[in-house]
Amino acid sequence: METLFIGYDNGLVRALVNGQVDAAWALEGDAPVAQIAVDPLAHERMYAATLGAGLWRSDDAGRTFARLSGIPNELVWSVAVSASDRNDGYGTVYAGTQLSALYRSTDGGATFEELTSVQEIPSLPEWSFPPAPDTHHVHQITLSIDEPDAVIFGVELGGVYYSADRGVTWSRTTADPDPHTLRTHPDVPGRLYEGGGASYHESRDGGCSWTRGSFDGIPDDVRYFYSLAADAGDAATVLISGARDPFSGHGNITGVPVWSSVYRSSGNGWIEVADGLPAPDGTAMGALAAGSPGVFYYVTDPGEVYRSADGGRTFAQLEYSNDVRGGIARTVLAVPE
Description:
By secondary structure, the protein is mostly beta strands. It contains 1 helix and 29 strands.
């Protein structure tokens, strides 16, 4: 049994998965929920980043949330909690905003300090988010499971940056400059994954260096990637969502046919996942999450939940016991019970 947290444009749903989906609103409002994070070693402590209502914290495993006041920006795109940098039993928290800034809390979100070193990164004047070119944001943050001083964050659109000294200094990496998804494997030190706007990348040294992945098995006209999840029990098995371009993938341009699919790799090329998932035609990109070893989730418009128990080879749609959903899922987190 696992608990899914699904971020929508109008709030956060907490859903118990036990053969079906038993869902309830954990956080409702007008602000989209951009990202959800759980403390890796204290699952009762969770955080929700919202686009317009700041950062929120839960102390009861995501049943209720309270707003935090330590970040002077309501547009919070990303949040991550460290498994290796601990204080009084809880992980250090990092949050990223629009315009791009990075904040850190060592007291469970009671207070935050801005890492002003981010504003000194030489490439900052070049950062720009294409749909709104006068803006940019910290879209992803990921933290090492065994190196408390290592911090990695990605700017949409502006690159992926690595620090070995808790954000005192930064180096730009060779990862895709459009970092839609950054993931750390929960059990394999040094193993990181990126689903980028135009490519898939991996790191084996904690995010310091990255290698561009092969496209073997992915059609030549599929070169836009978004959500990604890695099997908790097999670091080589990865699922990624792909589309021909952002317009067809997200279905946000009138008159442009909607098309997206999901691909699976265990290190020897990619295979389209067709068994149990909706057909690519007419399906906008959803959000992927990894649960227990061998378990994946894919949540699509309008909040349909698909689950795989065989390492992402096949999926089955789950029925809702009570129909609580909010359209296209922005982000999904799976927390094993």
